[in-house]
Amino acid sequence: MLTLLGAAVLAIQAPAAAGCGATLCYADALAPFLAKLRGGAPVHIIQIGDSHTAGDMVTNGWRTRLQARYGAGGRGVLAAGRPYAGYLTWGVTASQSGGWTANAGFGSLYAPDGPPIGVSGFTQTAKAAGETLGIAADGEGQLFDRIIVCAMAQPGGGTLRLRMGIAEESWLLEAPTPTPACRTMDSAAPVASASIATTDAGIASITSFGTFRRAGGVALSNLGAVGAQLAHFGRTSDSVVRAELAAYRPDLIVLAFGTNEGFSPSLALDAYESQLRDQIARLRRLAGQDVPILLLGPPDAAIRLPAAAGPAAGCGDGWAAPRGLDIVRRVQQRVARETHAAFWNWAAAMGGRCASSSWRMSDWMRGDHVHFTRGGGDRIGAMIDADMARALDSMASPDPQGRGER
Fold first, then answer.
1. pLDDT tens for each residue of 314-354
2. 55-59, 235-239, 321-325, 380-384: which range is least confident on average?
3. Which residues fall within 8 angstroms of residue 152, CB to CB, at 6 or more apart?
4. Which residue, among 265, 313, 320, 345, has the nearest Cα to 22 in the 3D structure?
5. How does pLDDT run across 134-146, given as a tens digit for each residue?
6. What domains can you pick out in the chain, each with its CATH number?
7. How far is CA 115 from CA 151, 183, 231, 238, in A?
8. How far is CA 145 from the centre of its chain?
9. Which of 230, 282, 281, 279 is nearest to 257 (CA)?
């Protein structure tokens, strides 16, 4: 059985998975999502991943095109407030007071015994009155008429004041046992701001906060953490994720991990494949079997020689592409086919191995040959959008049925 990355280099020589000759593979798995797009109903995409997702370069490139074509459905789901320095929220401005502490699924903020974590990857907790979390639209295109707040009801739970424009509601989080709960608040007209405030010293743990437009359009939620791997998503709570997915009702779940795994010199491939299969099965159990899943394979990237960890393919000018990235892609592609998920070959869309060098020369990638500039992210978003549009055009008989108003 394959274990360490170094022992698995020969796997690169294996043939590509059958039926995957283009950048978007197994698009038939996306049929319910594509039918929902064609039907014009409100559509919600949730993408969960690493820094490429957290930075919102790629997702914003895809989001702006979808919303230009189908209308804006809101900013979607975010971590509440600003859980860490440098947190990006394109399209809206997030804010918070100083009395909140975050538990994160990955990084120095992770506390195994802390408040449970949901799809956003961050849970914000306050234990004093007068603490606030806010969100404000940066422009007319991000106005919203619905907010969804997810939190923990628990012994000693406090009371929240939810504000949406001029409307206001109270929400008591006291419960005999810890229980995830989501509250929806609507406005008769679109508004530009919403906030959460604690009104007493009870415990308030907020797992996520989303803004939506009820009338239609697309919302694309980017939920990522810098440095994260798929294994870290496994730290989220089943009960919290189930409650959130029931409230946010995604029409497509995108898993965008693999870069950090592919750079790791100690990646255990058998464990990684098992994790991937387990998380796909888990998401289907928590979200519903009818929600399509799309795997985004890691992009082409490079590391400076001789610092490259493990076997690497030279790209010239002192850069090399870790072979682990190719191996991770092949595992993802095969698992996608065998689990009836879709797969998007990000590296192939860029031009294949060592394409990061030309992307860097074109100012589409940063100097680290891993992360994208805003222009590069927009270009990738356009590629995903174009592949989805082609898949939609190729649908033989659209299903107009959807789940109606979100």
1. 887 789 889 899 999 999 999 999 999 999 999 999 999 89
2. 321-325
3. 115, 116, 123, 173, 178, 179, 180, 181, 203, 205, 207, 240
4. 345
5. 999 999 889 999 9
6. 17-73+216-400 (3.40.50.1110), 75-215 (2.60.120.1360)
7. 10, 18, 19, 13
8. 23
9. 230
Distance of CA 371 to the CA centre of its chain: 16
Token pair for residue 393?
Answer: 């055009």
- Pairwise CA distance, residues 20 & 300, whole Å: 18
Average pLDDT taken over every residue of the chain = 90
DSSP letter, residue 29 = G
**Residue 253 carries which side chain, given as an amino acid letter?**
I
Look at the block and give the residue holding tokens 């809206």.
92
* Token pair recorded at residue 68: 């230009």
Q: Which two tokens stand for residue 274?
A: 């098992």
The span from the CA of 57 to the CA of 372, in Å, is: 7
Q: With a threshold of 0.70, does the pTM exceed it? A: yes
**β pairing state of 293-296 and 252-256:** parallel
Q: Say how far apart CA 276 and CA 229 lie, in whole Å.
A: 11
Q: How many CB atoms lie under 10 A from the CB of residue 346?
A: 25
In 3D space, the residue among 225, 304, 233, 227 whose CA is nearest the CA of residue 260 turns out to be 227
Beta carbons within 8 Å of 175's beta carbon, 6+ residues apart = 153, 154, 155, 157, 181
